[in-house]
UniProtKB/TrEMBL annotation:
Gene3D superfamilies in the cross-refs: 3.90.1010.10
GO molecular function: iron ion binding; iron-sulfur cluster binding
Full protein name: Iron-sulfur cluster assembly scaffold protein
Superkingdom as given in the UniProt entry: Bacteria
One GO BP: iron-sulfur cluster assembly
CDD domains, per the entry: IscU_like
Pfam families per UniProt: NifU_N
UniProt organism field: PS1 clade bacterium
Domain NIF system FeS cluster assembly NifU N-terminal: 6-122
Amino acid sequence: MLDDIYNTKIIELASDIVSLGRLDNPDTSATKVSRLCGSKVTVDIKIKDNVVIDFAHDVKACALGQASSSIMAKNIIGSSKEELYEVSETMVNMLKNNGPVPEGKWSELAFLQPVKDYKSRHSSTMLTFEAVNEAMNNIK
């Protein structure tokens, strides 16, 4: 059963995380922790004219949290706040309501679709999105 969610692509994504670390002077930061498993993601973001221009993250998570963080890091630069909220909503809908998978530059998130059948894994999968949303909400 768990082979469905811990497939080769998820392991590849988890092992290829870019932008690890912290930014020196971020415009906004946020940390989210999963109460279920203890996974933790901290994001630092620089934003200009409503578009992300720099990003770093500290990821202490399981393979699913690492995979979603990896995809976030590969795609966040150049994304608007609205786009980031939208992809987060799409992920929640995909996991909780069997909704469609994200498309376009976020299409790799489709590899996380099997997680929908494992509710206890939703939290770690969504950490990076929750951290980014909180960081974006902190921007006035």
